[in-house]
Amino acid sequence: MSEQEIRELLTKVKKEEISFEEGVKALKDLPFKDLGFAKIDNHRELRVGYPEIIYCGGKTIEQVREIIKFMLTKENNILATRATEEMYKEVKEFCKDAEYHKEAKIIRIMQKRPQYSDSYIAVVAAGTSDISVCEEAAITAETFGNKVERIYDVGVAGIHRLFDKLDIIRGAKVIIVVAGMEGALASVVGGLVDKPVIAVPTSVGYGANFNGLAALLSMLNSCASGVTVVNIDNGFGAGYSASMINRL
């Protein structure tokens, strides 16, 4: 529940458009809802501007089902990351509006249309193998009301492909750069733009890539100013941070 929604609720109680008891019922779970196996933070949107996101990794299908069932009562948009198709099928049984973004591994339920920003976020992928992490970032950003331009397979091994899309990249308010292998693309983009760059190392690569550690260290050691780095394969974290910057 957002601050505006709380104000509207209290105004309705004051004008006797809804009863006092109905107002209490709406507010009683505001701090959090204890489901036994999970405590859903209903206060988060009021604190930080975005409702709680469901991380499905390590959760059972039944736990995801019950969390989403409760969150639906709050009438917020719902984003569930690292979700399996089996989880989606279970959710679809009771929510026909549920969408599954297979590449991003995201279940999304849009209960209200966000107000989209005029500026946009560019999501840039070094290779096709990085697209799943890119889509996690892109879908996250779009869910929070951002326009997203996707620019895929423009890694440094064929850098002319990047230059062909440079106008679109430079037009963004913030740029997410996703790369595995040695993670060089973030430094290259960082040296070509005057916008903040959020680098996402991926676990794509051969043995010495160490499941993304090599790309992570390369990005952390970037000589290009203005490059910040999120964790390995953390497309959600990049999309969330980019949304906060884009909507300032």
Automatic annotation (TrEMBL):
Pfam families: AIRC
Location of the PurE domain: 119-248
Protein name: Nickel pincer cofactor biosynthesis protein LarB
Organism field: Clostridium malenominatum
